[in-house]
Amino acid sequence: MNLLDTLLRCVGTLVAFLVLPLVVGQTEHKVMAHMQGRLGPMYAGGFHGWAQLVADGVKFVQKENVVPAGADRRVFQLAPAVALLPYLLVLLVIPVGPDGMVGQVVDAGIFFVLAVMGIGVLGSLMAGWASANKFSLLGALRTAAQLMSYELPMLLAAASVAMAAGTVSLPGIVDAFHWWWVPWQLIGAFVFFTAGLAELQRPPFDMPVADSEIIFGAFTEYTGLRFALFLLSEYAGIVVLCGLTTVLFLGGWHGPFEDDLGWLWTLVKTFALAFVVLWLRVTYPRLREDQLMRFAWTVLIPLALAQLALTGIIKVAIS
Amino acid sequence: MGIPGSGLAKGLAVTMRTMMRKTVTAQYPDVQPDLPPRTRGVIALLEENCTVCMLCARECPDWCIYIDSHKETLPAADPNARARTRNVLDRFAIDFSLCMYCGICVEVCPFDALFWSPEFEYAETDIRELTHERERLREWMWTVPPPPAHDPAAEEPKEIAMARKAADKLAAAAAAAAAAAAEAATAEEGGES
Amino acid sequence: MSTLLAAAGSLEPAARSYLSPTGQEIVFLLVGVLVLGAAVVSVTTRQLVHAALWLVVALGGLAVEFLLLTAEFVAWVQVLVYLGSVVVLVLFGLMLTRAPIGRSPEADSGNRPAALAVGAASAATLVTLVVDAFRSSWIDLSGAAGTTRLTGEYLFSHWVLPFEALSVLLLAALVGAIVLSRSKDGGTDARPRAGKLRTGRPSAAPTKPKER
Amino acid sequence: MEWQPLAADPAAGSGYFDAYAAVGLLAVIGVLFVVVSFTANRLLRPVVDTPEKLLAYECGVDPVGEGWAHTQIRYYVYAFLYVIFAVDAIYLFPWATVFAAAGFGAATLVEMFVFIGFLAVGLLYAWKKGVLEWT
Prior knowledge:
Chain D: This is NADH-quinone oxidoreductase subunit A. The complex is a heterotetramer. Chain A is an all-alpha fold.
């Protein structure tokens, strides 16, 4: 693999990282609007407001950047990058299609993904602390507690798939996939997806940014481009979560005509899941903070442990 | 609520169904809204009807109607009579930054000088410019729609009902008189025969 | 066993020169300097939270060092456990117990010399140990020796007992943490029975004050 | 013990260092992206600092007290629990890749069940102690 090829793949990942979240965001605008009987943005770009988020990006770049007087300047300014970059790195290793249609194969696969995604917590904590705002700090603590609580079921559910496939490499897992894995790993898929949703702080798990209680959590003091980067990291997170769920639980590129259209299957499944993320957001109200924590520890983790036991027993029985 | 999670599924179904339905959004600047009659857009003034009785200004809860007037003496038509005085309107202005669109002024006006106009696009860039003088209020008169037709099932207006009652009474009396006359005529004929 | 040792890299002294370092070695040294610098700043800075954040840099640099030594699994364990949870735990603790922005002179304890002595002593011990143990041996980095699978094979063929003992240790830590965290307010707060979900309770009932 | 060096693994396709060089390269590209966007931002944005703008935002009224509020310690317990369980969970991954391989099988499965069993007891203990619930 020469340098040019690697460079191209990296740039491709960056482009995907910038485009796919915008697509998800625009879909959210429209889906949410229609689910509420509205039309959503209709003007930017001409056709049904397709360029709304591009226009938003242009606007954000021109916005003033306010750092509160009491804030810790450097940490405050660094936080959005810390929150954003892990998702970029993770996107590199998610396989899209068979035969090397992936940014880069990393042997540690899921383990790499989960470890790197865990760094994002630091961004929120830094943002919340450096803002010198009690609401921000409260939001940061909630974010951190939530991310840590839900990271665990994600790890356990991912481990269940790794057990089934006997590898932690993401293309290796998709290669080993059979259709009956879907029912076999159903509980794990539910746990993984739900925990991922909570980790992204999407409704109904958006207590850390509950606007009616703590304004916008850790991001209260952010303006302009830095705020936009936090939002971008949220939508990139949706893409990564849905891509990972597709790869781990839904068989990635497997489907009819997988030789030619494998990448399309991955994209279709990813966007179907992204639609579910948006759908859940529109449908359900926010969970209370204690319900949120209890749900992770008393529902998802026992379920994930049960899935681990099930996977282990069946795997040993069939081998 | 038998199966656990059925409530959650129901919620999902509701949002999905709404998404499939037609939206209710009106694309306002492109498509003008279809306003119902009696829309409270802005208050128009029919200056000719105003007698400067000041009822509207006094009843306004926000005190947003400003009226200036002076008295004018009309020369008496008849040399024996006293000269008549009449109020002449100098200024009639409504401050729409204060107005809360309660419509009390329209209700209390005894001479039908104030009307609701459906015109709602009268935004200004400065709040002080929202005090509109009588010329502007008069212009809005042209946008006042004709009063909507009465509901066919509604109760009859009092005046018509009274007139009808009187007419019915007259008609009944006339019919009774006619009947009496006819009876008398037949009795006469009978007496003759 | 010998296969595994071979996989872990040859420890034989090899004919390598210090004068023609490979790219990996250069990166290793640079990252090492970065880690050292971050660690020094971390212990000398007078801002509490900054110290924790510099610790993040130091630990992250260590993860990169592991990666450069082909210890892939350990590197990501480092990221997941140290960056993702231990440092977050430290930050958490600092933020819960009032971590002011700016310098915090009152958090300075007077035993700098003692700390310096202990740090220097442990550093000297470690350096002596490592230098003495490996001398001029070179690790062969051509094959990836620290993959998840190899770690698993090694762990479950040779180190099962320590692994099981670890679970007991973790359990003890867990129980200890819970006991410590509940010893202060234990018993005073009337909690409902665990595991039961209370429903339909009117919010007017005198419960604890809402947090924010 | 059957194991394949990574370079020969068809799923991996490339060498170990190449893979992480790509990750490193992407990290550099990501940092560049952030730097470039902030440079553009610096060139385009206005700077009009007023004292009101630099105040902490608290629902539009003047901030009360300082930027720190007393928070419940409960969050901390979750963080602590996570550290312990994360250490547990990472052992699942090396185990997951080998337990079904030849020479491991049921015995390794039982070993892991014992390991997880201990942790599950811990979780149950925390649950019974009411640490996981607030109300």
